[in-house]
Structure formats: structure tokens, C-alpha cells
């Protein structure tokens, strides 16, 4: 992992430091949004002069846009090895994709207590039942099974990889449990899809949601891919042109999915970028890709554990694999101050906060904000070492600059 796997834009970006001078920008906040692949940026630049309204335009640009947009469905479906009859709905992001699924479920949904808010809040509207996770994945799956045995559900929804700790869940095993109890499985793939090959067919995943901006594509396009039947009859995500077959003044006949849920002019460039990103990522050797990610993670965790008072967080004692997303706390230290220092004095971008997972942070006993470092295919060992070096300096000599807490954040 001393080299990046693929080229990304912004890797030679330089940023000003408060101490004077400038530094290479070290982007360790890729779980929030990942930098576009160079190939994606080139594709977008090629497409910009040609983008036009899809589906209805007769002109050349409209035809190109329609073809790019519609062929993206097959590319995305192929990338995650969707079943032949699965549908790919383009949304704004994972949040919208999961919200759409929540409105389509014909029954109750069972979920764990470790989810990102995007896979928690939509189920709070009435149809969600929460299983409390245990210390181990193994016992958590037993609890899940017991819950489904006690009362049936239509859907089980879990995160593929935690956006707080990077730990993954055994999706194949969860699918088996869900299916045996008559439920389908949905996976919030926002953090898993950018780090590991996901295979719907192999793992028995019925629905998968993910975001383009976390898988090396700019602009707001996301995906819900999965079984068509529920989505064909669910209330349309938006009401408007494109989603309807026939309209009278007081009624309408809606198309089936995906058109049903894609009313209005779609984000053609965003979808084209997403499709190019997954084609590039899909060409990586799956093991080399995962090894690059694991090597960086191991290097970071080992380095953090060697620092006094620094604690990486984890949910389970037996999780088998984890992606390049690591959150940690430093004893007696405000995470927001550390994050401000890393940026202002070292040009390192991490994230501080509660990571849209307030119940999980509470469960882990983290009171207040924590720090999170996350990487991707453009990351290198030098990025990890830059962070470890800066944290060492912080712990030994403290910030060189004076910081003040104003407007809810620390600033030099
Ligand atoms: N789920 C997980 C696990 C995430 O990490 C995120 C993004 N932080 C989301 C859902 C939501 O993604 P988006 O903001 O693109 O809708």
C-alpha cells in the first residue's frame, strides 16, 4: 500500500498552513466523499458538451444522454452482480435510496442498533423493529434470528460496513437467516461498496443502496438496486413527468420501476460519472483492492494503538473484516481541536463528530465527538504516516498555534 491503486483528482493539491507555507493535502476523509478517479473526471469533461434532456429529446445530444443514462443501469447491475430481473433506480444518494425502499416494504423491517441515521430514520416511521447488537457478531446474528422467529418481518436491513468503525457484517450468513424466516435482505452499501466487491447473487442480497460520491464519482447520484416487484407498486418517490404513462386532470397511470421513481429531469452527468467509476473499480483485482485497503487500515490501527491515550473504536470483538474507515478518541482531548490542528498545521483532512450515528456512539460509550480517518483507492502509506506523525507531534508538544473555540468550532 505504498502506492495508490488508481489515480484520483486532487492528489497533488497543496493547501496553505497557518504556520506559514503550504503542504500536500492529505485527504483522510474519504468515507464522507471520495475524490473522483482521474478517468471519471475525464469522462465527465467529455460528456459535458453533450448532455441534454434524456428520453424525450430527439436531437443528437439527447440521444447520447439517453443512451449513457440508460446503459448505466446495466453497468451498475453488472458491477454488483445483480440478478437478471433486478431493477436499478437512480436516486440522489444512499439516503434517498433507503428512504425509497422504506416506502416500498409491504410489512415490517428488522434492523440493528449500529446503523447510520440514513438506515435508521426511515424505519422509525412505524415499520421498524430494532435488534440490539451483542459483543460478538455471532451472538448478534442469533438475536436477529430469534427476533425473526418470534415475529415475521418483510425485510432485514443492515449496513455492509460501519461508517464509524469500518467493521463489516457477514452478509451471506445474514441473508440465509433472513430468507429462512421469510424476509428479504437490504444492505446499506455506502461504505462497503467503495472498499469491497459486493455480489448480490452470491451473497443473497435482495436490495443494495450506495452513493456515487463515495465511490469516486463527483455529483449527486446514488443507486437502489434490487428486486423489482415491491418497487413496481410502491408510491412514486416523486410525482412528475417521466414517471407516468398517462395523465388526466385528476389522475395518472404510473410506470413501473425504475421510471416510476425517477420523475423530473435526472442527473445524467452524475449517473454517467457513477457508471464510469464502477467500471474502473470493477476492473480492479478484487483481492488486490481489498489488500490495499486492509494494509492501510492495519498500518493506521497499529500506529494509533502505539500512541498513549489514543483508542480506535470497534463494535464487535469477533468481526472478521473491516474497511478503511477508522474512528478513534484521544483521552481528555476535544476531537474537534485535534481535527482543526491537523488541518491548520499539517494539511490533513479528517472528520470529527458523531458521524450521523448517534445511537452507535452512545452504545460505544463515546460521549462527545470522535475523530475519523478514512481512505480509498488513491490513498497511500504516506497518507497514514502523515497522520500518525502529526498526532505524535500533537501529543508530545501540542499545537504550535493558539486555538479558540468560536461558533461551535476550534480555529487558530
Ligand atoms: N450510510 C452510510 C453507512 C454512510 O456512511 C452514509 C454517508 N455518510 C450514508 C448512508 C448516507 O449517504 P449519502 O449522504 O450519500 O446519502
From TrEMBL:
Domain Aminotransferase class V, residue spans: 26-387
InterPro entries, alphabetized: Aminotrans_V_dom, Aminotrans_V_PyrdxlP_BS, PyrdxlP-dep_Trfase, PyrdxlP-dep_Trfase_major, PyrdxlP-dep_Trfase_small
Reaction equation(s) it catalyzes: (sulfur carrier)-H + L-cysteine = (sulfur carrier)-SH + L-alanine
A Pfam family assignment: Aminotran_5
Record flagged with keyword Glycoprotein: no
GO MF term list: cysteine desulfurase activity; transaminase activity
Family annotation (Gene3D superfamilies): Aspartate Aminotransferase, domain 1, Type I PLP-dependent aspartate aminotransferase-like (Major domain)
PROSITE patterns given in the database record: AA_TRANSFER_CLASS_5 (PS00595)
Keyword field: Aminotransferase, Pyridoxal phosphate, Transferase
Required cofactor(s): pyridoxal 5'-phosphate
Family to which this protein belongs: Belongs to the class-V pyridoxal-phosphate-dependent aminotransferase family. Csd subfamily.
Name of this protein: Aminotransferase class V-fold PLP-dependent enzyme
Amino acid at each position: 500500500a505504498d502506492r495508490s491503486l488508481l489515480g484520483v483528482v486532487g492528489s497533488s493539491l497543496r493547501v496553505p498552513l497557518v504556520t506559514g507555507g503550504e503542504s500536500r493535502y492529505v485527504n483522510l476523509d474519504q468515507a464522507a466523499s471520495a475524490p473522483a478517479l482521474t478517468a471519471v473526471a475525464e469522462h465527465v469533461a467529455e460528456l459535458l458538451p453533450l448532455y441534454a434532456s434524456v428520453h424525450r429529446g430527439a436531437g443528437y445530444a439527447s440521444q447520447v444522454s439517453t443512451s449513457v443514462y440508460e446503459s448505466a443501469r446495466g453497468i451498475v447491475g453488472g458491477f454488483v452482480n445483480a440478478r437478471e430481473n433486478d431493477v436499478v433506480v437512480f436516486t440522489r444518494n444512499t439516503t434517498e435510496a433507503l428512504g425509497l425502499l422504506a416506502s416500498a416494504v409491504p410489512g415490517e423491517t428488522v434492523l440493528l442498533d449500529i446503523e447510520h441515521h440514513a438506515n435508521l430514520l426511515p424505519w422509525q416511521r412505524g415499520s421498524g423493529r430494532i435488534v440490539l447488537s451483542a459483543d460478538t457478531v455471532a451472538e448478534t446474528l442469533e438475536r436477529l434470528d430469534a427476533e425473526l422467529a418470534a415475529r415475521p418481518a418483510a425485510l432485514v436491513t443492515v449496513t455492509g460496513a460501519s461508517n464509524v468503525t469500518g467493521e463489516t457484517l457477514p452478509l451471506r450468513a445474514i441473508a440465509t437467516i433472513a430468507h429462512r424466516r421469510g424476509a428479504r435482505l437490504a444492505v446499506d452499501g455506502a461504505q462497503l461498496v467503495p472498499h469491497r466487491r459486493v455480489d448480490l447473487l452470491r451473497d443473497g442480497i435482495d436490495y443494495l443502496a450506495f452513493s456515487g460520491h463515495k465511490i469516486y464519482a463527483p455529483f449527486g447520484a446514488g443507486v437502489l438496486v434490487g428486486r423489482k416487484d415491491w418497487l413496481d407498486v410502491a408510491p412514486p418517490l416523486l410525482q412528475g413527468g417521466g414517471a407516468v404513462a398517462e395523465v388526466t386532470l385528476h389522475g395518472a397511470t404510473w410506470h413501473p420501476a425504475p421510471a416510476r421513481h425517477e420523475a423530473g429531469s435526472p442527473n445524467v452527468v452524475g449517473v454517467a460519472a457513477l457508471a464510469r467509476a464502477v467500471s474502473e473499480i470493477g476492473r480492479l483485482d478484487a483481492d488486490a483492492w481489498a489488500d490495499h485497503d486492509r494494509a492501510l487500515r492495519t498500518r493506521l490501527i497499529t500506529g494509533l494503538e502505539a500512541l498513549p491515550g489514543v483508542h480506535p473504536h470497534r463494535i464487535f470483538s469477533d468481526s472478521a473484516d473491516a474497511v478503511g474507515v477508522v474512528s478513534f478518541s484521544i483521552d481528555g482531548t476535544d476531537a474537534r481541536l485535534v481535527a482543526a490542528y491537523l488541518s491548520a498545521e499539517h494539511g490533513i483532512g479528517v472528520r470529527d463528530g458523531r458521524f450521523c450515528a448517534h445511537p452507535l456512539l452512545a452504545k460505544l460509550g463515546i460521549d462527545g465527538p470522535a475523530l475519523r480517518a478514512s481512505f480509498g483507492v488513491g490513498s497511500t502509506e504516506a497518507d497514514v504516516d502523515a497522520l500518525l506523525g502529526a498526532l505524535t507531534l500533537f501529543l508530545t508538544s501540542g499545537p504550535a498555534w493558539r486555538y479558540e473555540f468560536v461558533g461551535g468550532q476550534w480555529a487558530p
